[in-house]
Design goal:
The protein has 9 helices and no strands. It has helices at residues 3-27, 53-83, 86-111, 116-137, 147-172, 195-198, 216-247, 250-275, 280-305.
Length: 314
């Protein structure tokens, strides 16, 4: 393994850790543990006079890891512009730009008091960064994919990303437990809903969004949409995984097995979140496996469509 691949792998692993930490911070209601940014009550460590030191430390540990990740990503970008191929320049340059935007989203998460659109964007930004680093690790070679997989793989990636965004919206609006049972919702297949209020992208800045501001029917609408999205993901990703195993070469088959395994785990975690009232380990893992599903989908797209790599000095 070259030094570049090792550094990229380390950055990817830290990114996955930061995504999990971010989920833990959000789910433990510690997103406003520090009322300012980038410090905490004006300090770069949690001071003794913090209103809730436990929540503040959760937030600051997340920031420490995110800051360390930023330094590694900038290092990768500098290396790629000095010695990398054109593809590496694009990948790591985009990662460096994204890490700056992620920092801004982290700041706005605090200053806009958990505005759902910002919180969801911060989650998607973290997964996008993981995706870029994953691309930096993948071998750029074509695979023997049949035509059906060449259109199904991008479709699967699109529905997974859409579902991750919907999951971020579900979490940021505190709608994860809007339905208290499964497969029904509050004893009904279709309870009272309010979709017109459920997906308003931007709301007044005069309130804090901690613990949510939506009424019950709007939260139910979000939860139902997330469940319907999960059904679409199950069908499309399941089809991609099955066809990859049945019709692909060894590389595609391995990816298909990974997709099916991750899909089964993710469905189990999603149902467990409802039945066991959102236990922290299960909820955090639900975020992590969602990220892995995105990466696995990207791999299937990548190996079935990408041309051979350019020579590199790495």
């Amino acid at each position: 393994m070259t030094k570049l691949r090792l550094a990229t792998l380390v950055a990817l692993l830290i990114t996955l850790g930061v995504i999990l930490l971010g989920a833990f911070v959000r789910l433990s209601d510690a997103g406003l543990g520090c009322p300012d940014w980038p410090g905490c009550y004006g300090h770069y460590a949690v001071p003794a006079h913090a209103a809730d030191a436990g929540k503040a430390w959760k937030e600051m540990v997340h920031r420490y890891f995110a800051g360390s990740l930023g330094l590694i990503v900038f290092g990768l970008a500098v290396w790629s512009w000095r010695r990398g191929s054109r593809r590496q320049k694009l990948i790591f340059g985009a990662a460096a730009v994204l890490i700056v935007f992620q920092a801004a989203l982290g700041m706005w998460t605090v200053t806009l008091r958990l505005q759902p659109l910002v919180v969801m964007g911060h989650l998607l930004g973290g997964i996008s960064l993981a995706s870029l680093l994953w691309l930096g690790l993948l071998e750029t070679r074509a695979s023997a994919a049949p035509p059906s997989l060449r259109w199904l793989a991008p479709l699967a990636l699109a529905v997974v990303v859409a579902q991750v965004a919907l999951g971020g919206w579900t979490s940021s609006t505190y709608s994860a437990l809007a339905c208290a049972d499964f497969p029904k919702c509050n004893g009904s297949w279709w309870p009272a809903t309010d979709f017109s209020d459920a997906f308003v992208p931007w709301r007044s800045l005069d309130v804090s969004f901690e613990h949510g501001v939506l009424a019950g029917p709007a939260r139910v609408s979000i939860q139902l949409a997330h469940r319907l999205g999960a059904a679409v993901v199950f069908v499309v990703v399941g089809a991609l995984g099955t066809l990859s195993i049945a019709r692909g070469d060894r590389t595609l088959r391995a990816g298909g097995i990974a997709l099916i395994a991750l899909l089964m785990v993710q469905v189990t975690l999603g149902v467990s979140n409802v039945l066991f009232l959102l236990p922290m380990p299960v909820a955090v893992l639900h975020n992590g496996v969602a990220t892995l599903l995105v990466l696995a989908s990207i791999r299937q797209v990548f190996i079935s469509r990408v041309s051979p790599p350019e020579p590199s000095s790495s």
